[in-house]
Amino acid sequence: MPMNDFTAVVPVIIVVLSACAVMLAEAFRRKHEDMPMGLLAIIGLLGALASSVLLWNRHLVGFGVVSADNFSLFFNVTICVIGLLTVLLSMGPAERDGLPVGEYYALMLFSISGMMLMGSAKDLLVIFLALEIMSLGVYVLTAIKRSSEDSAEAGFKYFVLGAFSSAFFLYGIAFAYATTGTTKLDELGLRIAATALEPNLLLILSLVFLLVGFAFKVAAVPFHMWTPDAYQGAPTLVTGFMSTGVKAAAFAAFVRVFLSTFEPLRGEWVPVVSALAGLTMILGTVVGVAQTSVKRMLAYSSIAHGGYLLVGLVAANAAGKASILFYLVSYALTNLGAFGILSALSSPDRPHDDVRDFAGLGKDRPALAALLTVFLLSLGGFPPTVGFIAKWYIFNAAIQEHMVALAILGVLTSVVSVFFYLRIVVMMYMVDEAAPGHRPALSVPVMIGLFVAVLGVFYLGVMPGQLLSLAANSVASIF
To answer: pTM to 2 decimals?
Structure first.
């Protein structure tokens, strides 16, 4: 076996081995014995991140179906950063909430390995296997709070609907193979290009079913039904993890399959995805305004942000492709920061899931209130935060492709969404505390995680050029 074959999958292998190490540590841990499960996860993720950086510009292919090109390595680093922030923000709140920490970190790492594989797979069947590895871990994480009926219900709903969407995805692969005789993306793209002038029915069905599978994972309307219940019922940091990591992995595969392999059929899928983008932005924003549960509000916010990312996908020019990658990084930093604060503040007598729970936070915890304000303003797209820059580049890419209606709709929905973000800010600073309750102290890892997130929000909001250039170079490696 050529050395390059194994080298290409080293980052994924490191994450899997670290998950196994966490499982072994949990198996040998005595009752009530403290073990640094989070530290083991951090070591594994740092190793995967470092190996991804060292593979940069080497463009290796592992076993013919896994690519270590710059595009996949960019997503490897992004997903490792998401994992590191989630682990840091979990060290303290996970134990306090009574989660089985060994299982929690192991499942998270296995899910991350699936996410990384989704971004690097060059075969539809490998993408499907990676999607299932990722999804199975996230299903269990959603229901991991065993004492909560809401958590169990959320996990069950997510599992059932996820299985339904996976069936669509698998049918899409089957139809693609029946039409072209291959599931490898490069060969599939060549054979689709050869028949693009007269695409047959099976190929169109393959396109539709694959689109349904991806649309479910990015929570695009009308395949968003699972999102509010799953986000509300899952432990807070699991919600943050799946709203960022799952979305990043799904868009990584979405871009590789639709903007590269199915590019010859662009005329067939762009109108459909454009309609999905518009509906997703509208529903996510309008229904989000009516929510009083903060987690449900952020769920609909996540749906709307998926719509903005779909705008970049249909624009598909150089700026649009790079803006998708940049937007995913900015959204990950912002959303994880917001969910990290929600998790750190939550306690049994005050879960901080209702907007009213944030009353008086500006006086009680001024530093946390300020951080949460920054993250919410970034989600709303206020300068000088990274959220403003990310939306600017997405909408600019749409205008360059003469998709003015989508860009205007994106701007209008962004303006409306500011209402439900500022509602929490008003509650923190302008409403007296109506329901006093215990707000736990923050652990050191949580403070480090929040500091890294807010630093990224401001740094990329003021100096986005380097990351944008890196994103452009990364996405160019698959075209």
So the answer is: 0.93
